Amino acid sequence: MSDRLPHEKGFHVSWDQIHRDSRALAWRLDGKGPDNGAWRAVVAITRGGMAPAMIVSRELDIRTVDTISVKSYDNQSQADAKVLKAPNAEMMGDGTGILIVDDLVDTGKTLELVRRMYPQAHFATVYAKPQGEPMVDTFITGVSQDTWIFFPWDMAMQYVKPYRGSD
Ligand SMILES: O=P(O)(O)OC[C@H]1O[C@H](OP(=O)(O)OP(=O)(O)O)[C@H](O)[C@@H]1O
Ligand SMILES: Nc1nc2[nH]cnc2c(=O)[nH]1
Ligand SMILES: [Mg+2]
């Protein structure tokens, strides 16, 4: 995070919120697959896409779920991003009927790489920043580019000093 552009704002997402927003994403995708509205499989972009993908696959009753792991190298070009683990090639084909899910799109670098591999897949994220929007087919909530999104799996409850008082 420190080597990215400064983020003016923070958007803190609770478990309840990511659950609601992921459900909303599922409902928006329902019946939109190419085979009479059906999707063949859900593929999560690890790690952030796993919780939303689980919720989407549960809502849409899709039992075939796979993962793709992309490691991007900060301060280097897109060419340096590497796929550490690919989903089943036979299942994926060119991506037709496959729902690829991530928690968010920021610069669009991650989705750009995955899109090149599976051009016919449908790309869905829960949150989207403007720079990455062209890379995503369906998303629920837009946030500004200078906002950092904090997910519940990266946070913990902690003591906060009273507004008025010493401690
Ligand atoms: O649009 P981009 O600029 O490529 O950024 C978006 C990606 O960055 C985050 O993942 P990260 O690579 O930090 O790994 P993680 O999912 O394992 O936390 C997020 O979960 C997206 O996958
Ligand atoms: N948690 C988190 N990861 C990111 N990766 C790229 N942008 C973000 C963001 O806003 N929040
Ligand atoms: Mg990620």
Automatic annotation (TrEMBL):
Q: Which family does it belong to?
A: Belongs to the purine/pyrimidine phosphoribosyltransferase family. XGPT subfamily.
**What protein name applies here?**
Xanthine-guanine phosphoribosyltransferase
Q: What residues does Mg(2+) bind to?
A: D103
In which compartments does the protein localize?
Answer: Cell membrane
Please give the InterPro entries that the UniProt record associates with this protein: PRTase-like, PRTase_dom, Xanthine_Guanine_PRibTrfase
Self-association or partners: how does it assemble? Answer: Homotetramer.
Q: What is the lineage of its organism?
A: Bacteria, Pseudomonadati, Pseudomonadota, Alphaproteobacteria, Rhodobacterales
Broad class of the protein's primary localization: membrane
- Where on this chain does 5-phospho-alpha-D-ribose 1-diphosphate bind? R47, G48, D102, D103, L104, V105, D106, T107, G108, K109, T110
According to UniProt, the reaction catalysed is:
XMP + diphosphate = xanthine + 5-phospho-alpha-D-ribose 1-diphosphate; GMP + diphosphate = guanine + 5-phospho-alpha-D-ribose 1-diphosphate; IMP + diphosphate = hypoxanthine + 5-phospho-alpha-D-ribose 1-diphosphate
The organism named in the record is: Psychromarinibacter halotolerans
